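Appendix C: a fully annotated inverse folding record. The material below is reproduced so that readers can follow the format used throughout the book. The structure is listed first as C-alpha cells, followed by the designed sequence.
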C-alpha cells in the first residue's frame, strides 16, 4: 500500500519542481533605478534630521514609559489584593 503524503509536502515538492521565473533585464534595470531613487531620497531625509542632544528623548518614548510604569503599578496592586477578573464582582 502506498504511503500518502500530506498536502503541504505535495505543494512544497510542486513549488520546488517549478523553475524560477526569469526577470527580464529591463525589469531588473527599472527595479535598480527605483531602489537607487529611494536610497537617494532616504539619504537626503536622514541628512536633514537634527540629532537629539545627550539625555533628550522623544515625547512618545516618555509617554510610553509613564504608561508602562502605571500599568506595572496597577498589576502589583491587583496582585496584592488578589484581584481576579474572571470572577464576578461582589457588591459590598
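Designed amino acids, in order:
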Amino acid at each position: 500500500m502506498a504511503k500518502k503524503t500530506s498536502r503541504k509536502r505535495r505543494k512544497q515538492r510542486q513549488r520546488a519542481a517549478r523553475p524560477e521565473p526569469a526577470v527580464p533585464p529591463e525589469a531588473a534595470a527599472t527595479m535598480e533605478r527605483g531602489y537607487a531613487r529611494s536610497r537617494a531620497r532616504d539619504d537626503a531625509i536622514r541628512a536633514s534630521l537634527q540629532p537629539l542632544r545627550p539625555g533628550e528623548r522623544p515625547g512618545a518614548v516618555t509617554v510610553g514609559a509613564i504608561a508602562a510604569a502605571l500599568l506595572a503599578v496597577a498589576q502589583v496592586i491587583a496582585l496584592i489584593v488578589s484581584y481576579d477578573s474572571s470572577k464576578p464582582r461582589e457588591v459590598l
